[in-house]
Fold this sequence. Notes:
By secondary structure, the chain is of the alpha/beta class.
Amino acid sequence: MHLRFPIAAGSFYPSEEEELNRVIDEFLEKTHVEISEEPLAIVSPHAGYVFCGKVMSRVYKALSYAKDIETAIVLGPNHYGKGLISTCTGIWKLPNAELLTDDDFITVLMEKLPLEDNPEHHAWEHSIEVQLPWIARILGEKIKIVPITVNPAIFEKEEMISLGKAIYKACKELDKKVVVIASSDFTHYGIAYNYIPFTGSPSEILEKIKQTDMNLIEAIQELDTEKIMELGSKSTVCGYGCIAVMVEYAKLAGAEEVKLLDYTTSFDVSKTTDAIVAYAGIVVV
């Protein structure tokens, strides 16, 4: 059985179990969220916790309302362009947990998709890993995971619709209660990202970034996959394809409402416009 060791521990989040749990618990203790229904899916950022931990705490606090979740399906962009649609079965080791993959679910998905099981595609990718300490803390170490990276090179509407449908069909065939987690940051602005479509004072830049992101967030709230893909393709939102997959699944699963729980940017911490990344926490019920 493959052991996938953490690569973001010590940089994106604490590498020691006690400190990691303390950081997560402190974020959660400061967070109040009320939702009327159990979450079907969430959108969560994947930056360092110092930058996006507050946003992550909102969506994962909402996830604590879910009951009897058996499997967490975590979709993340592959920032290194490895593979196309790729999973990594085995044990995902973390400072605060060891999570097993749901191999039965993955086997059924492989019958419906060109899904490759390749640990090398996940070896240096953080978009899924940074979600897992929160998942373990909220849902417990017995939760199983289906980690799937999607290469942005295939962020196309039909591909994302097919993946969303396959996930829904696998849930039905296996009669499993799942939550789907789309891991994505939003606009990446500044010289560090070679993306400066507008300039101005920090407050003006932040307002324009927010306006750009809110257009995409409105499309998510409308469960409009075509619009998500159209706006995402013109943006620097790294995981818009994964969000579209989540939306397709959620529509089939009977989604009734999409709530934006929080929105912020790295500027709150860094105070520099050279590299600004925006983060949105979204829950689908």
